[in-house]
Amino acid sequence: MKLGVVGTGLIGGSFALGARTRNLFQQFVGIDPDPSAVKQAAELGIVDEIAAEVPGDCDAILLAAPSDHIAGWVVALAEHPAIVFDVGSVKGGILDAVVAELGHVPPRFVPCHPIAGRERSGPGSAHEELFADRLVIQTPHSQLSQADLEQVVFWWRSLGARTQTMIAADHDDIYAVTSHLPHLLAFAYLQQVAPEHLQHAGAGFRDFSRIGGSDPDMWTAIFELNKNALLPAIDAYSEDLARLRRAVDEGDSADIRALLAKARRNRAGSS
Amino acid sequence: MKLGVVGTGLIGGSFALGARTRNLFQQFVGIDPDPSAVKQAAELGIVDEIAAEVPGDCDAILLAAPSDHIAGWVVALAEHPAIVFDVGSVKGGILDAVVAELGHVPPRFVPCHPIAGRERSGPGSAHEELFADRLVIQTPHSQLSQADLEQVVFWWRSLGARTQTMIAADHDDIYAVTSHLPHLLAFAYLQQVAPEHLQHAGAGFRDFSRIGGSDPDMWTAIFELNKNALLPAIDAYSEDLARLRRAVDEGDSADIRALLAKARRNRAGSS
Questions:
Q1: What is the DSSP secondary structure assignment for residue A136, as one 8-state letter?
Q2: For the segment A76-122, what is each residue's pLDDT rounded down to a tens digit?
């Protein structure tokens, strides 16, 4: 069994290392537009060989490229006989882009989203237990066979992940609120932060703004791909912010306290 | 030397424990409107005795009460001969409230703000090293003597803190941006978070929203006391958010990327 790994960074590299340990595949081929990343992946034993194109004899192809490059790979591989699965943070936008190009989704494409750490990057950070106890979501489309879905689910579970199947639009609505919106708000917040502020930054600042140091290219792509779910989430947030601002401006202690208590309740259960 | 500790929770209790270890004071009296807190503080050995009022023979009085109660204590203790120092998160608003009441600031009041953990609370969380390597800010007023300022700075440094002297208005502007605004934004963000989101919450969500679980009473008081610095910070933020929203809406990748890159640069150096 041969796996093609398109994008040999943290996510692709970690999947390959975990799959090798569990003997899910015997041969690993790395494909990456960044020659230094794929060379490093080969040196680290993540892949056995480097290829410029995805070989025709791959049994499966993992698309661990940036979110805005995945649809292009799915289109390019539409005639390839292998199971193709991805790790994009947005699902509906990728499927829409594929349909816009091909008129349909290739039947063997299994859309996936592993909720796994993104703070570090590159093959040097890859490790075989990255997906242990992490949630990996699949968003099947109408052309997908149950057998292909179950095969990909089996691979993720073999790496220790929990899996969940959802409708792509539901996935995108939920992650707009739980992930994409907080990143956007942290990026907006940091615009007014100047050097004289940093020496006065406490633990609250560091935790709150940590995701605002995330990779600009990766998040530009995610925001654009999930624009349809993200814009309404921004607008709901802006209304809540305006209400809280008004309560502070008018000295309405009861309303401030009610909003703060609701925030605390809504978060209860998270750590 | 006798220290009166008004408010025997995390901050007051930790100062008392640290001061006892270093032998800065020999007697500790606890005063707290919450009888269970001050009883627990006595049982834990944080204070030696409990009093309903601040005894007249205290040499120093630490006001570790909620921020919106501090001005009232400063006014009530205006004729007390002891050095009085506080731990309020807002400085200008407290001084303004005192002046509104008395027409002046009592000369022996030394306004302080320790930047120390607030996630836990109560005397049970107090420990003698809470201020080790933490920043404690003093915002002197025109009536304050250099000797009293240096005495309070000496106590904080004895507990391992770093100290810094600032103008109250500068303190409030800086902490509006680095602390009060992030809390307010996290509270606003959590308004739309529902139970179905929490199971999809990753590390980014948890870090970003952690401060949104903070105590509603404490933060209502801080927002109201620092309203004058907080409202302009909210408005600057809203403009930055509107620009980022517009860039996403218009698909202006270059502008999104520029804003995200600026956010990352502005945060560089924080952990």
A1: E
A2: 999 999 999 999 999 999 999 999 999 999 999 999 999 986 667 88
Q: Quick check: A261 contacting B, CB < 8 Å? A: yes
Q: Compute CA distances A7 → A4, A28, A121, B15, B20, whole Å.
A: 9, 12, 11, 53, 59
Q: Which residue of chain B comes nearest to A253, CA vs CA?
A: B220
Instruction: State how far the Cα of A174 lies from the Cα of A180, in Å rounded to an integer.
Output: 9
User: Which residue in the set B188, B223, B271 is minimally distant from A206, CB to CB?
Assistant: B271
What separation in angstroms does the CA of B147 have from each of B107, B152, B154, B178? Answer: 11, 9, 10, 31
Domains, chain A, with CATH or none = 2-166 (3.40.50.720), 171-267 (1.10.3660.10)
Q: Is A205 in CB contact (< 8 Å) with chain B?
A: yes
Report the gap between the CA of A196 and the closest CA in chain B (Å). Answer: 8
Strands (E) across A12-87 are located at 27-31, 49-50, 60-63, 83-86
- CA A57/CA A4 separation, integer angstroms: 9
Q: Which of A108, A144, A1 is nearest to A59 (CA)?
A: A1
Question: What 3-state DSSP class applies to A51?
Answer: coil
Written as one letter, the residue type at B137 is: I
Q: Check CB contact under 8 Å for A217 and B270.
A: no
Q: Containing H/E element for B14?
A: helix B10-21
Which position has the token pair 């952690």?
B210
**How many Å apart are CA A247 and CA B224, to the nearest integer?**
9
User: Nearest CA of chain B to the CA of A98: how many Å?
Assistant: 19
Using DSSP's 3-state secondary structure scheme, residue B1 falls into coil
Supply the pTM of this predicted model.
0.92
Q: How far is residue A229's CA from residue A232's CA, in Å, rounded to a whole number?
A: 6
Radius of gyration of chain B (CA): 21
Mutation for testing the B interface, residue in A90, A175, A178 having most B CBs under 10 Å: A178
B87 interfaces chain A, CB cutoff of 8 Å: no
ipTM over 0.90: yes
In whole angstroms, give the CA distance from residue A65 to residue A71.
Answer: 10
Residue A219 in contact with partner chain B when CB distance is under 8 A: yes
